[in-house]
Specification:
With 163 residues, this protein is of the alpha/beta class. It has one domain: Rossmann fold (3-Layer(aba) Sandwich), CATH 3.40.50. It has a seven-stranded mixed β-sheet with strand order 1-7-6-2-5-4-3. Helix 1 crosses helix 2. The protein binds adenosine-5'-triphosphate (ATP) and magnesium ion (MG). Magnesium ion binds next to helix 2. The site of magnesium ion has 5 residues, from helix 2.
């Protein structure tokens, strides 16, 4: 005898807010990063999605700058260090900015060693490049920022925030 597979309950689709931007240069993407900060009320745990070299780290430069956390040239890719941490402020309140790149991590076990859960305090803005690779990150995320090429140096930036 076989038992029927459980049917997943069908709830209403998750409510999201979507914001879109287009940019035509790296400097332009830094500026969009600065503008985005007003949308990002901590705590946020966001996946930064986009092909290699599309501008994920470039966008974080603007976010860090607007938070008074770091100047754009101080923000570099956390490819090897995996996590970069900055202290900033937003609307007069302290913000912890965590910039991660999990491209090189393989499997949930390796990811666990990073201790991501501990980062997500009420004042945290956690941005994870390549976070979509991991189911545990997809489940925990409060949204994503997707960057895609729109030909040449043009990029489309889509911010999707869960309500
Ligand atoms: N419109 C644009 N927006 C962002 N970056 C751009 C744009 N046009 C050109 N660039 C250039 O593309 C490169 C983007 O590099 P960046 O390190 O930000 O990418 P990334 O998505 O973080 O890549 P990786 O997946 O390797 O970490 C930079 O050299 C930047 O100057
Ligand atoms: Mg990067």
């Amino acid at each position: 005898m076989t038992s029927a597979a459980p049917v997943a309950p069908k709830g209403p689709p998750e409510a999201v807010r979507i914001h879109q931007f287009t940019t035509t240069s790296g400097a332009d993407t830094v500026e969009v990063g600065r503008k985005l900060v007003r949308l990002l009320q901590p705590p946020q745990f966001l996946i930064l999605r986009g092909d290699l070299g599309t501008g994920k780290t470039t966008l974080v430069k603007g976010i860090a700058q607007a938070l008074d956390a770091a100047e754009p040239d101080e923000v570099t890719s956390p490819t090897f260090t995996l996590i970069h941490e900055y202290d900033g402020t937003r609307e007069g309140k302290p913000v912890k900015l965590f910039h991660l790149d999990v491209y090189r991590l393989e499997g949930e076990r390796q990811l666990e060693t990073l201790g991501i859960d501990e980062l997500l305090t009420p004042d945290a803005l956690v941005l994870v490049e390549w976070g979509e690779k991991f189911k545990s990150i997809r489940k925990k995320s409060t949204g994503e920022i997707a960057i895609s090429s729109a030909g040449g140096d043009a990029r489309k930036i889509t911010v999707t925030l869960k309500e």
